[in-house]
Write a structure and sequence with these properties.
Blueprint lengths: L1 E4 L7 E6 L5 E6 L6 H13 L10 E6 L5 E6 L4 E2 H7 L5 H12 L12 H19 L5 H12 L19 E4 L2 E4 L10 H12 L13 H21 L3 H14 L8 H28 L2
Antiparallel strand pairs: 1-2, 2-3, 3-5, 4-5, 6-7, 7-8
The protein binds adenosine-5'-diphosphate (ADP) and magnesium ion.
Adenosine-5'-diphosphate (ADP) binds next to β3 and β5.
Length: 293
């Protein structure tokens, strides 16, 4: 049996394994026992994912290592991450890619049920935001304060409950023969496709996945801008009022990163990007206000 470490961000171990019959699969092992339940939830989310044009690698097997760590085995998708693919892809292909992403992220019919009514959404966000206010108060940062004030005043009831990936970065999407696969699903405090699009914007608007790269080539930046504009266009076509909701989703996502920023450079980057997102929200709300006059 051969195995290669595939790396990753979560601290879990991810191996590409070739068994004695020459079959390959990927094994993801929990980083510690406390993480077992979350990784198990991840494999369940992945196994039950149902996308129109996007797939998830089939979950083949699950179990526990001798050390008591949960693991699951899945189909190996021999491709590259969308974060890498974007750098060199033909610009003409971005539209098709955005269309298949959107058709798989936005459910045709919402699955809002009696258990998730509007007041629940508001309560869930109010609770999340009050926790964040406590955690973030040590920062004494006007950008965070402004964000929290906006987020607390926002009516979150448009965010319908739906299937949700939970961590939809460009690094968690694999491209193989122009087909897309979602990996690395994550349980979240609330499941809604709006939050997934917000996370996508974190990469295509804020360029978060590229923050450690010394220079991001103009080609990549250009493709990300085209990607973002086409994504926003698609959302507008579904409902123009959703665009601002996506930016609010992005804003809550960004301020949740602050507690994890370790170095000053990343902190400044985050602060600068968060301010820009606030500006964008103000602009969108001003435009919506003028339209309704
Ligand atoms: N099923 C798979 N097929 C091919 N590559 C994979 C697969 N699962 C993970 N990878 C590769 O391993 C990397 C890390 O996996 P991921 O599940 O995203 O871990 P983490 O939770 O640490 O981010 C991915 O970015 C991808 O390159
Ligand atoms: Mg990942």
């Amino acid at each position: 049996m051969n195995s290669y470490n595939l790396g990753g961000h979560s601290g879990c171990q991810i191996y590409l394994i070739e068994d004695d019959d020459g079959k390959t699969f990927v094994r993801k092992i929990s980083k510690d026992e406390d993480y077992n339940e979350r990784l198990k939830a991840q494999s369940e989310k992945q196994a039950s994912f149902n996308g129109e044009q996007v797939k998830a690698p089939a979950v083949l097997h699950q179990g526990y290592t001798e050390e008591g760590l949960y693991f699951f085995d899945m189909e190996y998708v021999q491709g590259i991450t969308l974060a890498e693919y974007v750098k060199t892809m033909e610009i003409g292909k971005v539209k098709g890619l955005v269309e298949s992403l959107v058709s798989s992220i936005i459910p045709k019919r919402s699955i809002t049920s009696i258990t998730e009514c509007k007041s629940d959404v508001s309560q869930i966000f109010a609770k999340k935001l009050s926790g964040l206010r406590k955690t973030l108060s040590v920062h004494n940062n006007p950008v965070i304060d402004h964000s929290l004030t906006l987020l607390e005043a926002h009516d979150w009831s448009k965010l319908t409950y739906s299937q949700c990936h939970g961590d939809m970065t460009l690094e968690n999407i694999i491209v193989k023969n122009d087909k897309l696969y979602f990996i690395d699903f994550l349980d979240s405090f609330y499941d809604s496709w709006f939050l997934d699009i917000g996370t996508l914007l974190q990469d295509v608007q804020v360029m978060w996945s590229y923050r450690f790269q010394e220079t991001v080539s103009m080609n990549t930046v250009l493709r990300l801008i085209v990607f973002r504009d086409l994504l926003i266009d698609e959302i507008k076509q579904v409902n123009p009022a959703y665009v601002v909701e996506i930016y609010y989703s992005l804003l809550q996502k960004l301020i949740r990163i602050y507690p994890y920023t370790k170095d000053e450079l990343t902190y400044h980057f985050l602060n600068e990007k968060t301010s820009l997102v606030i500006e964008e929200i103000m602009k969108l709300e001003k435009a919506a206000g003028e339209e309704s006059l």
